[in-house]
Amino acid sequence: MKTYNVLIVEDEIPAQTNLRRLIETHFPDLRIAGVQSSVVGTVEWLQDSANRPDIIFMDVQLSDGMCFDIFARTEVRGKVVITTAYDDYAIRAFRVNSVDYLLKPIVPEDLQAAVERCRRALETENPAPDAELLRSILAQVGREYKKRFVVRVGDKITVVGTEQIAYFCAEEKYTYLVTSDGRRLILDTSLDAVSEQVDPRQFFRLSRSCTASIGSIAGISRHLSNRLKVALDPRPDFEVFVSRSRTADFMNWLEDK
Asked: 226 is in which domain, residue-wise?
């Protein structure tokens, strides 16, 4: 039987004890090679050439910082599983970006599934984690998103709540806000900026020229080159396609609604 070395990075003693107990009880092929509770301690442990973890269970918030600080200070090798007690948004963000995670309190069934994914990944792919991806996801936790947009049309000012918005689109040099009742308003900002300001639970960047709300999606069909064609309501005067590279993320976003 192949043995996998495990590093536990957790600063809460009860959570640390629970995870260690579950691993030792249910997984004879996992060997706990180390347990750390801080960024500094984890960095020092990883920098010791004698330590080569295959799987790292890593809490988000540690006693002296966030877990992504570890990636900024040293090379991290091995399959990383984020353990988190964060809210539903964080979980959706992990799912959409294909980052493995365990929701606290950890239970045997969830741990079993995570370990199975780790085993498969270690056999088939480079297990080095994407530090920038983890950083960007964790940076969003607790973030406040725009609830309304103020649009100026001549001498008039219109306030549009995000719940009224069907989609945003970019055409030539302009960015438009399209409401669910068909109003089309010009914004004085870029689509890139708008897409960062709205809640990713409700809006998805379908293409370089369109970010749509979940409520505006009227239909989806397969198209050439494994792309998806998306029908929006109100119907725009252009076709919207999701690229092949974004298809999995889009489907995960839809399923998490």
From this structure: 148-255
